[in-house]
Amino acid sequence: MEKIVLACACNDAYSPYCGTMITSVFNNNRMERIEVNVLTSDIGEDNKEKFEELASEYNQVINVVYVNPDHFKDVPLKSGHSNLTKEAYYRLLLPEILSDTKKVLYLDCDLIIRANLRELWETNIDGCAFACVKDRSDIVIERVKALGYDQHDSYFNSGVTLMNLAFLKEFGFTEKAFTFISSNRHLIKYVDQCVINAVCHGYIRELPIKWNMIVPFFMKRPMVVEEQRDNLELYISNPFIIHFTTEYKPWFKECNHPYKCEYWRYQELSPWHNQTIQEFHGFKKLSQHYVKTTIKFFLGKLGDKRYVWRDLTIDG
């Protein structure tokens, strides 16, 4: 069978989380041939050796691909969101970096894979640039309006992205993406995600929701586009990919995501198993966290179920 080619991006500090994600891939795809391309500009030797150890343990391939950070020194980042870094933009170079590859599955580092990826990999993307899951419903409405294109084209979360590299090269995607960034900095709220949607709207195929279950989908009142509600009910207790969006990642003690423990199960299986749980960054960040948490708690008590976790029977 055709090997599955993956890509992700991280810096040295994010390597343990990237490694945990890759561990979840390898663990649930033992019968597949997988090549992972880790895009980076500053991974140290210790983490590089751990990636090599992880690849060797599962008899898979991990390539550490160095990217010139000068290409991204002036890219806009969302103020106050430490989880949105310049590395998110590195995927814009994939049509050039993997120039001999027809397609690649890009995965963010803050997620875990709980299923075989063959079905996703074989999704038909002929004539399309990307295949992704639509973002939370309120963001879809707000971003389409801000970016100024037809609501029918929608707005997609880029955390799990099947990229048609052959199409993107012919489309001139990388050049168009950087042109958009230089001319529309004020419109970019969610880094690469806004760029991808703005440049390629109308050429993005929708994936079933099971392939990118973001945080708002697990709430009692899930912020999901209407056409995905039935699929959400099918997979809420057995999602194929869990994406820990928001700043409160599972490696922070403040995270209360229902699948947090499962993240740590894969972390313990990885070469980074000596990681310890952290506190959220600094007094100001912690204060903001507790204020937001308190507000959401009282909103939940008042009947706003957007911020109340569903009671889940977790499979797997």
How would you characterize the largest beta sheet?
Answer: 7 strands, mixed
Helix-strand sequence: EHEHEHEEHEHEHHHEHEHH
Helix content: 25-40%
Overall 3D geometry? globular
In the sheet with the most strands, the strands line up as 3-2-1-4-7-6-8
Measured between the Cα atoms of the first and last residue, the distance is 26 Å
Low-confidence stretches: none
SS-derived structural category: alpha/beta
* C-alpha Rg (nearest Å): 19 Å
Averaging pLDDT over every residue, what do you get?
A: 91
Query: How much β-strand is present in the residues?
Result: 5-15%
Number of alpha- plus pi-helical segments: 11
Number of strands: 9
Describe the structure.
By secondary structure, the chain is α/β, with parallel strands linked by helices. It is 35% helix and 15% strand. The chain contains 11 helices and 9 strands. It has helices at 15-27, 45-58, 94-97, 118-121, 137-147, 165-171, 173-183, 191-200, 229-235, 260-269, 282-301, and strands at residues 4-9, 34-40, 61-66, 103-107, 111-113, 130-134, 156-164, 204-206, 241-243. The strands form 2 sheets. The chain has a 7-stranded mixed sheet, sandwiched between helices. Strands 5-9 form a two-stranded antiparallel sheet. Helix 1 packs parallel to helix 2, helix 1 (15-27) crosses helix 10 and helix 7 (173-183) packs across helix 8 (191-200). The longest helix is centred in the C-terminal third of the chain and has 20 residues, at 282-301. 40% of the residues are buried. The model has no long low-confidence stretch (mean pLDDT 91).
